[in-house]
Amino acid sequence: MKAKATDIAQFLKRDPLRLYLFHGVDVSGSRAAAAKLAAALGGERSALDPGGFKGDPGRLVDEAAGAGLFGDAKLIWLEPVGNELLPAADALLGAPTTEYPVIAIGGTLAKSSKLLKLVESSQDAVALVSYEPSRRDLVRDVAALFTAKGLHPDPGVPERIAETCDLNRDLAAREIEKLALFVAPETQVTHEAIDAVGAAYGVTEWMAVGDSAMDGDIAAVEAALGAVSPQASEAVLVWRAVQRRVQQLLPLAARIAAGESSQQVIASQGRALFWKDKPLVARLLDKWPARQLDRVAARAVAAERAAMLEPGSKRAALGEELLAIARAARRRR
Fold it and tell me: What is the per-residue pLDDT across 5-37, written as a single tens digit (0 to 9) for each?
């Protein structure tokens, strides 16, 4: 089965499925929907490393059949996942019986993904996609987060948080946590408070580095990397921005592959495509056919996963991968 992550409510009151696969460019939205689902399912949350199933796909079946540490009900939480989960998911859905549900959270999966096709074709599983949130959606969510914390933002503060966090719910939640500590014991959140402790995500425009890489602008990539922190805490957001751009380009590239010109495809978007982005999108469509965009998406998902989970120099890894994409783009000129 397949559905939107925003429609998670329909799955909260029905019998549990074997596998819930959350995917899409808005990983923070997927995580929020998965948390609602986990709360409704109840049971001890057992967070496992998805990489542990590579050589032993049957282990996921065993985990879904065994009770929690103290014999209680449980649910299995896997994050982040990608197409490498396919053998384990196949074993899980093919098992005669299972006891406890599995929640898996991934990034963008191509329509050709075998994992996605497996889940969508099963009546014991559902693939829930999270699209990029609109500004209105995130402003509403930010306002709700302020309310949940007992905070009272000045007019325009939720909008400012949404914009500076690039429509990312996880970043917005962290910013509100930081603001709550800063203003305590007061509850009013002013623009002055944001000026004092808020993250200046939009100031260096480093999130555009993904566009620069895909456009083959090596000089711009190198300049942007100079603004990245030593810990490369921005890496995850950079890769999610790349995934969002690929998600935007894929349906347009498919139309070009079917015979339309890039000019026709872009003209058909009207106001859905911001006018300032049209020259960039045209260049990217000329450089990246659909098949290659799938590869960029896969690399971005893998790089995001590595930035979250793997040790080592994340700043160097971010630079190496972005420059590799930029060099590939230059070869396509």
Answer: 989 999 998 899 999 999 987 887 888 899 999
**pTM > 0.70:** no
Residue ranges of alpha helices (H) inside 107-229 are: 114-120, 135-148, 157-164, 169-183, 191-197, 209-214, 218-225
Read off the pLDDT of residues 46-86 as tens digits, 9 standing for 90 and up. Answer: 888 888 888 899 999 999 987 655 557 889 999 888 888 99
Residues 6, 303, 299, 246, CA torsion sign: positive
Instruction: Work out the average pLDDT over 137-154.
Output: 92
Strands 19-23 and 102-106: parallel
Domains along the sequence of the chain with CATH: 2-129 (3.40.50.300), 135-197 (1.10.8.60), 206-331 (1.20.272)
Q: Which residues contact 104 (CB under 8 A, 6 or more apart)?
A: 19, 20, 21, 22, 50, 78, 79, 81, 85, 89
- CB burial readout 78-101, b (16+ within 10 A) else e: bbbbbbebbbbbbbbbebeebebb
pLDDT band at 137 (very low <50, low <70, confident <90, very high): confident
Question: At CB < 8 A and 24+ separation, what contacts does 329-332 make?
Answer: 329/213, 329/214, 329/215, 329/216, 329/287, 329/288, 330/216, 330/218, 332/216, 332/286, 332/287, 332/288
Tokens of 106: 């991934």
